[in-house]
Amino acid sequence: MEESCVLKRTDCRAKGGAPGFKVAILGAAGGIGQPLAMLMKMNPLVSVLHLYDVVNAPGVTADISHMDTGAVVRGFLGQPQLESALTGMDLVIIPAGVPRKPGMTRDDLFKINAGIVRTLCEGVAKCCPNAIVNLISNPVNSTVPIAAEVFKKAGTYDPKRLLGVTMLDVVRANTFVAEVLGLDPREVDVPVVGGHAGVTILPLLSQAKPPSSFTPEETEYLTKRIQDGGTEVVQAKAGAGSATLSMAYAAVKFADACLRGLRGDAGVVECAFIASEVTELPFFATKVRLGRRGAEEVYQLGPLNEYERVGLQKAKKELAESIQKGISFIRK
Ligand SMILES: NC(=O)c1ccc[n+]([C@@H]2O[C@H](COP(=O)([O-])OP(=O)(O)OC[C@H]3O[C@@H](n4cnc5c(N)ncnc54)[C@H](O)[C@@H]3O)[C@@H](O)[C@H]2O)c1
Ligand SMILES: O=C(O)C[C@H](O)C(=O)O
Fold this sequence. Notes:
Residues 22-164 form the Lactate/malate dehydrogenase N-terminal domain. Helices cover 43% and strands 17% of the residues. It has 11 helices and 11 strands. A 6-stranded parallel sheet has the order 3-2-1-4-5-6, sandwiched between helices. It is globular and about 55 Å long. It binds nicotinamide-adenine-dinucleotide and (2S)-2-hydroxybutanedioic acid. Nicotinamide-adenine-dinucleotide binds at residues 26-27, 29-33, 53-55, 95-100, 109, 113, 116, 119-120, 136-138, 140, 165, 168, 196, 241-244, 247.
C-alpha cells in the first residue's frame, strides 16, 4: 500500500516537513477507528496520518484520503506493515481490540485485548519510542499497565508519554450534569478520576465547573449514570458493539489536547489514566497538564466530599486488582 514518492507529490510534501504532527491510529478500520480517522484528518495540527489495521485498512485509507484537508493519509495492513506504520510518529492512538457485548464486563475483554496491546506496544517501543501513546483499548485499567511493562522491558518507558484515554467519562459527565443543571454542556467541566470501569470511574461533582450543588438524589443518579454510561450504550446497541461515535469524538478531543501540548501551548489540562503518585496505586486517572514531553504535571485530587471519599475507597480496591492483572500478564 505504500507507494513510491516519485509520482505522488503529496508524499513528498509530507516528507518535506509540512508543519504539523505525525499521527498513527492502530485499529483504524474499527467502529472507533473509522470516525476517529475522519476527525483526525480534519485536525489542522496533523500533517501525516497513518491508518493501521489487520483488516480493511486500504478501503478506509482510500476513503479518508479524498477529504480535502491538509493531512497526508497512508494505509498499512497487517503485522508485516506495523513497523512502517509506526516509524517517525509523534502520537500513536490505539483503539484496536474487541468491544463488549451485553452482559460482559470490560475485564472480559482482557483475554483477547491484552495480547493485541502487547504486540502493538512492542512495535511502538521499536519504531517510535518517543511517541505519545493514547491507549483506548479495554480494559484500560489493565491495558495501560501492560503497555508500561512492555516499554519497561524494551528500555523505552517514559511514564509521561503513556496515557490511558478516560476522556469519554468526562464527556459523559459534562453532558449528564449539564442536563440536570439546564446548562449548555460546553459550559460544564467535571473532573472524573480513578479508572475506566464501573466503580473505578469516579466523577468529582463537588469540583464541577461552574460550581454547583446537587441533592443526594442527583449525586447518586449522576454518579451511577456516568459510571454506567458505557453499559448504557452496549445495551442500546444490543450486540452490535459499544460506544464508537462518542468515543471517536472524545479520543479526538484528547488527542488534540496532546498535540497542543506537544506544540508548546500553555495550560492544556485534561483527565487521563497515567502512572501516578496521587494515591498508593501505581496508576490512577486525574487531571494532568499536557506539554512538549507528554503529561508534564499530574494534579492532586483536591478536596473530596464524604460521598466521593467513600467512592474513592471502592474505586481503589477494584483498580488495584485490574492493575496487578495487567502487570502480571507481562511479568509472568
Ligand atoms: N477507553 C474508552 O473510553 C473506550 C470507549 C469505547 C470503546 N473502547 C474500547 O476500544 C476497543 C475498540 O472498540 P471498537 O468499537 O472500535 O471495536 P471494533 O471491533 O469495531 O474495532 C476494533 C478494530 O481493531 C482491529 N484490530 C484487532 N486486532 C488488531 C491488531 N492486532 N492490530 C490492529 N488492529 C486490530 C479490528 O480489525 C477492528 O477493526 C474495544 O476494546 C473497546 O472496548 C474504549
Ligand atoms: O463500555 C464499554 O465497553 C466501552 C467503553 O469503555 C465505554 O465506556 O463506552
